[in-house]
Write a structure and sequence with these properties.
Layout (H helix, E strand, L loop, with lengths): L5 E9 L29 E2 L1 H15 L23 H6 E2 L7 E2 L2 E3 L2 E8 L6 E4 L1 H6 L11 E4 L12 E3 L2 E8 L6 H4 L3 H4 L2 E3 L2 H10 L2 E8 L6 E11 L5 E8 L14 E2 L2 E2 L5 E2 L7 E3 L10 E2 L2 E2 L5 H10 L1 H4 L12 E8 L29
Parallel strand pairs: 7-11, 8-10
Antiparallel strand pairs: 1-14, 1-21, 2-6, 3-4, 5-14, 6-7, 6-14, 8-11, 9-10, 12-13, 15-18, 16-17, 19-20
Helix pairs in contact: 1-7
Bound molecules: zinc ion.
Length: 369
């Protein structure tokens, strides 16, 4: 087997507002700003934050809680075994033996489609750079103008449209995107996409972030602290993001069987979650997915590749979230789809090795520009 690095592109949707802070208050519009891309000033979720939560959630799903976190705490050291899905995938730290680097690199989650209100209801704004970086080809639009994507007839055909407080004139449609990953974005969103220039995109995003005011509580009195009103900003609900995960399996070994089948978490009718519960169906191996054989050399196969471990961890961000303000109902993110990126940087379509729930092969009936 040769060393063959592979990139997977994930598309995500925020289910709650998401606040990943810069780690310190600064002078400005809000007390607790979120992390931004320096060049475009667009908010993002840093890969390091995602790496931390994905490792933690995957460790719990695979029953290896000691392998979550930094591994430096007494009594909670990484196991470091080559058969451990967590230590193999993310690496491990050991005092004396030194540890090992992981085999995955998780990139930043960047904004692709951003919801803003308009006189015709919510629309999702994007820019040429964002579309191209995510693998959806090159598109143009004049400064101060907007082009409609999709087919929704509610978008006015000739009248100007407001995007938040900003009025823009229309400049026709942009060509339909027929990539399978695009078609995995919910249709209500795809049908209401508005393309504006990169400069306008950044301005619209930054002036339509969710900003909330809260008050710090004094733990002794249970009342509000004096002068403790603070504001924080967040990426709003229903934002579409994308991120790349590179699997560079330099250890070049067949990942290992563990003791048996790992079961998905199961939600009962009281809404309670039960971890590793047979009623949730098999997590790994997934018997419905023929590329994940149940047994290999007569032994049950627990995980097939580091990307399975990433997916398992990422599935829990839909319940447990990422970033701050979790107790205020912030942070949940849903995985929409993941697709390997080809050597030339384009996205495979249809996406191989994906369950067929999104069948990306049929042509869409989009209107012509
Ligand atoms: Zn471990």
């Amino acid at each position: 087997m040769t060393h063959d690095p592979k990139t997977y592109r994930f598309f995500l949707m925020t289910v709650d507002p998401v606040h990943v802070g810069t780690g310190g208050a600064r002078l400005g519009r809000v007390d607790n700003p979120i992390v931004r891309e320096p060049g475009t000033n667009l908010p993002k979720i840093p890969g390091s934050s995602l790496h931390g939560v994905i490792r933690t959630y995957a460790a719990h799903r695979y029953g290896k809680p000691q392998c979550a976190g930094q591994g430096q705490q007494e009594g909670r050291k990484h196991c470091g075994r080559p058969t451990c899905p967590i230590c193999y995938t993310f690496g491990y730290a050991r005092d004396r033996e030194g540890g090992r680097a992981g085999v995955v690199a998780i990139g930043d989650a960047r904004i692709l489609l951003f919801p803003v209100y308009s006189m015709v209801g919510p629309v999702w704004v994007t820019g040429p750079l964002a579309l191209e970086a995510a693998g959806f080809g090159s598109h143009q639009v004049s400064p101060g103008k907007a082009r409609w994507g999709g087919t929704n007839s509610e978008l006015p055909t000739d009248k100007p449209l407001n995007l938040g407080w900003l009025m823009v004139g229309r400049e026709g449609n942009f060509p339909s995107i027929t990539n399978a990953s695009w078609e995995d974005i919910p249709e209500q969103i795809r049908n209401r996409v508005v393309l504006v220039s990169d400069k306008l995109f950044s301005q619209i995003v930054n002036s339509n972030l969710e900003v909330r005011t809260s008050v710090a509580i004094n733990p002794e009195t249970g009342a509000a602290k004096e002068g403790a009103l603070f504001t924080y900003e967040a990426i709003p609900r229903a934002t579409i993001l994308w991120m790349d995960v590179v699997v560079s399996d330099y250890r070049d070994k067949t990942p290992w069987q563990n003791q048996g089948i790992i079961w998905k978490a199961y939600q009962d009718n009281q809404g309670e979650w039960h971890d590793n519960d047979q009623r949730g169906g098999p997590l790994y191996p997934d018997t419905n997915n023929p590329s994940q054989p149940e047994t290999i050399n007569g032994q049950p196969r627990g995980w097939k590749s580091p990307i399975d471990v990433i997916q398992a961890g990422l599935e829990w961000t839909e319940h447990l979230g990422v970033g701050g303000m979790g107790t205020r109902g912030f942070g949940r993110i849903r995985k929409l789809t993941a697709c390997p990126v080809k050597a030339d940087g384009t996205l495979d379509s249809p996406c191989p090795n994906e369950d067929d729930a999104h069948g990306g092969t049929e042509d869409t009936e989009e209107s012509s520009p």
